[in-house]
Amino acid sequence: MGRSAIVLAAGLGTRMKSKQPKVMHPVCGKPMISHILDELQLLGLEQVVVVVGPQQDEVAAVVGQRAQLAVQDRQLGTGHAVMAALPYLRADSETVVVLYGDAPLVRAQTVNRLLEAKTLPQVAACVLTARVADPRGLGRVIMGVADRVVRIVEEKDATPEEEAIDLINTGIYAFATPLLKMALQNLHPDNAQGEYYLTDTLSYLANNVGQVLGVEVADPREIASVNDRVQLAYVEHLMRERLWQYWALQGVTIVDPEHTYIGADVKIGQDTVLMPGSLLEGNTVIGEDCVIGPESRLVNARVASGARIEKSVVLDSFVDVGARVGPFAYVRPGSEIGPEARIGDFVEIKNTRVGTGTKISHLAYVGDADVGEGVNVGCGVITVNYDGERKHHTVIGNGSFVGSNVNLIAPVRVGAGAYVTAGSTITDDVPEDAFAIARSRQVTKENYVKAWKSHRATEKLEKGEQ
Ligand code: UD1
Ligand code: CA
């Protein structure tokens, strides 16, 4: 069918006041440009070209293999940006969709409506329009008879009458590829901003070639775009609402959507409950019947069914079926919390595998360790994994018991079924089923305090102290 897309992302984004390119700003944890590429992917187009500015390596990295990159050397306007993409268009491209990289809420089905309208006879181009309460800053669409667009006027070039129009240009178009090329050759920067406006191709086509149709978007929230960070916050709000409503309809209970943050790539199972203050980020995947929060942050976490994570942070780790984490636990990257295991308050786990049913209930640091099944790690246990230069591994065998306040000086192994007494500093391996005690013996001095107190009392009397 020869369908292409061009995404414009080379603009300077001056109004963002940012060191980052505008399209790299995340919306629900994902760069704006990625949202658009994800939607376009659903359409199965033959090709996608992204127009970037010079030195926009970050954008190029995010686009990766998903699209071709065209560089617009100087930012001379949206029409000029599309010109930069033309050399990349396939020779058999019949239709080309043009979108702006700063409107990340657009859905594939909406672009598809535009593509369908484009197939009607005599149609040279279609533009997605929207009727909005506040058209400020946007191009106004001047309609003719029926659905025909006469032209688009930018706000800076508009007369007061034109400014009063509430039908705006969303910046999403479908063109007959050869006609777009022809129209671009006839663009002139004779406007208030001295730019090559892509919008001027529409009046050219309407006047000289064929019909230009306006297709009004059903839900104007879908075309909100980002020029500054106030709009970024608004778009974030809209995307967040879309995401929580989606998951709520999939059977997830979200107790307080205003205080719950679900990243765009997160997945959540049925009957899971998200309590207020839950932040689910990155590629986090949550199973069924879990309870997350209140106040938990999960980044690239995998959580199996029935797990409970309360007031805790879990980064790049796996929490297995029925495990309980928190309150106040910190599970750092590379960890695996086994089925039914318990990670309690003020416990930090890093790069550690914790076996089934193991309990690390309070105030412990377990890093670079392999902890077996059914182990009890007492309060205040520390794996001493760092010698100032390198990290070392600790192994704690199945069914062992590590008493309170034990230091395990890695590399070290505690065998299965072993028992390490409270307060021990373990420097040597403890064999299976052994008992290890590594602390100095207690010295008890009978009546020592009493004698000392009476000595002090005599001294005070002699010296006349109070
Ligand atoms: C544009 C439209 C306006 C529309 C609005 C919708 C034009 C002339 N105006 O205005 O009618 O209502 O979008 O959001 O098209 N870009 C480049 N190279 C450039 C200039 C821009 O790649 O030289 C890219 C930007 O990165 C951005 C997009 O094009 O993603 C739109 O540019 P922007 O400056 O935001 O246009 P608006 O003023 O919003
Ligand atoms: Ca814009």
Work out the helicity level.
10-25%
Total count of domains:
2
The outline comes out as elongated
Number of strands: 39
Tell me the CATH architecture of the largest domain: Alpha-Beta Complex
Q: Compute the gyration radius: what is it? A: 32 Å
Please give the alpha-carbon distance between the first and last residues: 102 Å
Q: What fraction strand?
A: 25-35%
Q: What's the CATH C level of the largest domain?
A: Alpha Beta
How confident overall, as mean pLDDT? 97
Class based on secondary structure composition and strand pairing: alpha/beta
**Largest sheet at a glance?**
16 strands, parallel
CATH fold descriptor of the largest domain = Spore Coat Polysaccharide Biosynthesis Protein SpsA, Chain A
Ions, cofactors, ligands: which are bound? uridine-diphosphate-N-acetylglucosamine, calcium ion
Low-pLDDT stretches: none
Number of helices: 9
The CATH homologous superfamily of the largest domain is termed: Spore Coat Polysaccharide Biosynthesis Protein SpsA, Chain A
